[in-house]
Amino acid sequence: CRLASNGRCGSGATTVYGFVGGRPYTGVDLNGDGDLLDAVTILQPSHTRTRRYGVIANLRYDINDANTVRVSYTHDYANHRQTGTIGLLDATGTPLDVFPINNPIIDVNGNVLTKRDRQSLAILDKVAAEYRGEFGALTVNIGAALPFYKRQLDQYCFTTSSSGFVDCFGTGFATSANGAAADAAYAAVNTNAIAPQQRNYSYSKFLPTGGLVYHIGNSASIFASYSKNISVPGTDPLYNSIYYPADAPGTQPKPETTDSFDLGARYRSGNVQAQISGWYTSFQNRLASAYDPVNDIVVFRNLGKVEKYGVDGSIAFQPVPQISLYLFGSYLKSKIKDDVAASATSVYLTAGKAESGNPEWSFGASARGKLGPVELGVNAKRTGPRFYNDQNLPVTSGGVEVYPAKLPAYTLVNLDARLSLAPIGMEKAYVQLNVYNLFDEFFVGGFGGTLSSSSVQFAQIGAPRTISGTVVFAF
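The chain above was modelled as a monomer; its predicted structure follows.
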């Protein structure tokens, strides 16, 4: 790659080899045509090697038959090595090795090229305590936890944007595989690129919990609970933050915290079981993510304070031992409390809007019957519309609407059948047939959501009708 004055590859005076601007520059004739003038399609998957271990210790003490206390300690240590070694394809586009790390592309200097190169340590130490007491028909649980999260990030590439783009030349903080002179030349024309470095982050939060259950006779009960939780940023937003100075205010990704409440009732009698509950959750620094498969990065957005609440209900009925029926449904509302900054001078109009990607309602039913060695089941679920973006607006391009504000509702029906082989002397063996998406519904299964009403996002199309069969033998 000949570094141009704008920091990209073009006509320039300094040659470097590496992964620059999303493309590899090897200095090697990869297609064997005798020159270095071609752009060659390569295989460039992401590799992650994880070494993880954990220790959990619990101590329980029964004060008496009605009162119990418990304390616990958890240690979790994970070492993640993330690389993107590249490999060759044959003339048909088939990888020579689906794991390029086994046979990687080597540049002219004998170095292995990779599209990303980083290592992180994720360490958790948590202490917790709980009290459980029974007072006649009332059962009480009170507890608390105190987690300590540590993140040590080693970024071996130059960070070129707050969205996680990097240029990689080799492993090492001081000098890359190109040598100090080439590194200096790259840095001179890429003044906004952040040199390889290490960052450390720490998070902790006191997390109280409480709950109670009150039994009404032998068949019914009411319950209520409260819990505070924390979700610390993953490695992707933490690596993205390296683009900013470590001590710059507001640049360290904040953890997502929640306060959750629920209240409900259960009924259990003979062949009927039913439950209904209402819940409310308040999010601080609601962190939402979306995967970009083209650039192979995860894009994050902080929605600030978000409130969610809803009702869930279900009822199960078994009129005879051979037949069981189940009905369920849920209703959900979400509200983003404030507008989200789009730039120093503009905002996304999200205040009072619903969070994208969440259906406001869903309901369904299932039935299962058994007759001799044959067992049949069917289940159906209707998922309601979902907003496409957090401003709850149609998607527009050049003033023209290209997609409505909501994705349409969809219904999935699945079947399964099982035939026991017990009649032929194989007591634990059976043949099973499953049909997913019986009516071949075309639907969007999931999407990341977005703030902007002018950007088209990536979506995961749901699986079509799928039929699978299984034969299980147990001894």
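Helices lie at 180-189, 235-240.
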